[in-house]
Amino acid sequence: MRGCVKQPKKPMIHGFVNMKLVYLKRNLVESLSENYETFESNVMGSFVKVKVEPFDPKYPYQLLPVTGIKKAPGCENKTVLLQVSDLPDDVTMRMLSNDDLSLVGQPEVVDASNSEKDNNAENTNE
């Protein structure tokens, strides 16, 4: 294995940047829905952040891909519903998040490792 250099692992930030390229905020979805003829081709396959657990403060939203669209039944004003992966019910515009995507830090992991070091130091000093 001479001359073979092991490449360092690339950070996960690349995947996050790519995800931001296909993530649609509620305002954008609403503005795209004004032109129903091109709406499907613009939205299909992209990701939306859907409020699925309103009473769970830890995980209120899920990032899900759009798999289909349809007009709301009985609505004359072109109300559009989104069909997303892993949800049996259609998604209304009000269920979409308008927040930007952000990386979640890992303070719990750092805190846990620091806490473990502190506990080990305390146990050795006793």
Automatic annotation (TrEMBL):
Residues 13-126 form the Plus3 domain. Transmembrane segments: none annotated. It comes from the Eukaryota. PANTHER family: GYF DOMAIN-CONTAINING PROTEIN, OS01G0884500 PROTEIN. PROSITE patterns: PLUS3. InterPro entries: At5g08430-like (IPR045894), Plus-3_dom (IPR004343), Plus3-like_sf (IPR036128). This is Plus3 domain-containing protein. Residues 104-126 are annotated as: Disordered. GO terms for molecular function: DNA binding.
